[in-house]
Write a structure and sequence with these properties.
- With 677 residues, this protein is mostly beta strands.
- The protein contains six helices and 39 strands.
- It has a single domain, classed as TonB-dependent receptor, beta-barrel domain (Maltoporin, Chain A, Beta Barrel), CATH 2.40.170.20.
- A hairpin with a 7-residue loop joins strand 6 and strand 7.
- The N terminus is likely disordered.
Amino acid sequence: MPTDNQIPAVSTRTLFQRCFKSALPALKQNLPFCTLLLSSALPVAPVYAQTSDEWDELDEDTIELPETVVTANRYVTPLNQVGSALSILDADELEARQIRVVADALRAIPGVAVSRSGGLGALTDVRIRGAENNHTLVLIDGVEANDPAISAFDFSNLLNVDIERIEILRGPQSALWGSDAIGGVINIITKRGEGPARVSASVEGGSFQTGQASVGLSGSNAQLDYSIGATVLDSEGFSISPQGSEKDGYHNVTLAGKAGYVVSDQFDFKVVARYIDAQAETDPQDFAFPPTPTYGLVIDGDDESETQQFYGRAEGTLSLADGDWEHTVGVALTDTNSEFFSDGARTSKLEGEKLKFDYQTNYYLTTDAAEHIFTLALEHEDEDFTQRGETVDAPSNQDQSITTRSVVGQYGLDLTQGLSLTASLRFDDNENFDDATTYRLTGAYTLPDSGTRFHTSYGTGVKNPTFTELFGFFPGSFIGNPDLQPEEARSWDIGVEQSFFEQRWLIDLTYFNGRFEDEIITTFDNDTFLSSVTNADGTSRRKGVELSVRGRLHEQLDLTASYSYVDSEDPDGEREVRRPRHTASLNLDYRFWNERARLNLGVDYTGEQDDLFFGTFPSTRVVLDAYTLVNLRGSYQFSDNVSLYGRIENLLDEDYQDVYGYATAGIGGYAGVKASF
């Protein structure tokens, strides 16, 4: 039975801490429309069930989508049996696009919006289908990576280090993954070592005085596989203040390791760990009194953040009954530490820790007509939050903790006639809130000999308030609300996938509709000049369409494209901020010279979106202009061991903002060399 890429499980906290302590103005003006026109004029087809998988040649210009397995159901599942809306980015695509920061790859995924508050190292939010950034659960090799202090994941420090694939599940997944998955799940799976021991290294340099160096060691034998790597990224940066000139730099050190050991035919053990140490220079907003002409805007300043993040997991899997009955026991640790400085003095410190123990069993019952999969999971989760202010007796100093116990059950049915169904149920016993029950239903059906597949899902979700929302206190600016209630969501989607022209083209079209109750929103008190949070009255609504296209234009030229329309409204009927209605992506990948050379062109379009300007009381809405990013990449394989590569980012030197008041990078060029031995 399937065992690869299972959601892992962990060892103890002590064990882990010991192991790892200009030009073309006319084209630039019209490019968004040209991109959308090109995408709609081509014989459409998607990222398979919204995926991006490896394609194999059948003949000169025919492609095949292999039957790939994913972890959408907490067990390995053939892709054509997945009912949820799913996208996949694999290692080959990440390499072709020369992805340095994972968030940049996610711009190509339908239904996903990325907001970066500046350059490298700046706060980077990822939102799925108009949900909030803390409504998305991020898994790294099975470790729940959301910062326990804020229950959200900041993508600013996540580099593309040894990543094998990224899976993006859209829609409520709380029934499987708990509170943080109310909007979706992003599952990052790193590479396993394969074959004889191999050393790899790369060096890169480019614009903004940016340099990056990586080294890794990987391999395997009959029982052991291993992969370890280290990456250092350093950049002098640019001023993230449009009014300023002082450069805001960034430094990141990432260490990653993964190993597996097969004890016997029935038992294996796995361990993974990732450590990130990052420093980012930032600029403050001008809230000096009396107000100045730059009041409320980002100005030059000497602010800085320092972040340490550790993610680790260990698990053991026992397989019985000829592989039909699996048992996995694991323990995982997420440990984050963030400190903030202004003019050299520490202003605040946040620490979050999540220690999770889990057990999961899968039983596979196969008959002539169907396969039945029964899943049971038990989880125990301890979360701790520590906040420290400027002094040892600061009023913001506090320690908080929450314990959650959960039971998950799921039944999966795969019929030989091409129909696959799942039903999932979860019960959460949280010591701070009422008990919660969530569920999810999915279905997928493939019409025989037609190239047509239908998929659908319906799910509910509950999002508990974060530590910061409940207890956070930043003197003079924010105070938490301990009376908050959990947010609730329900959503459904339905889609159809169709292959064309002897499998040379594939299209997937999905419609989704959802609503949120008791949405947590920010408020401002004009008397105290403090912001806080509260549960909004009424219903917040989300709906939209996701289109994915994939095709082979020529035996050496592949195309992927996507378009999304996301309508996101708050309970008052206004557009939710930082959620563009329209996003689109186009990628052309060309291999030539016996596949030693490769050119890749990427175009990402983000439509206009609302944001807030905090220089008025109350804050006022502003509109951020639409923008298009064009990236050109190329590489050449000199030998089996050495390759050169280079890229131009933001080729048209687009001037844009993801977050009001924060500048972003202009045109930049980078080049590097890779070697392996």
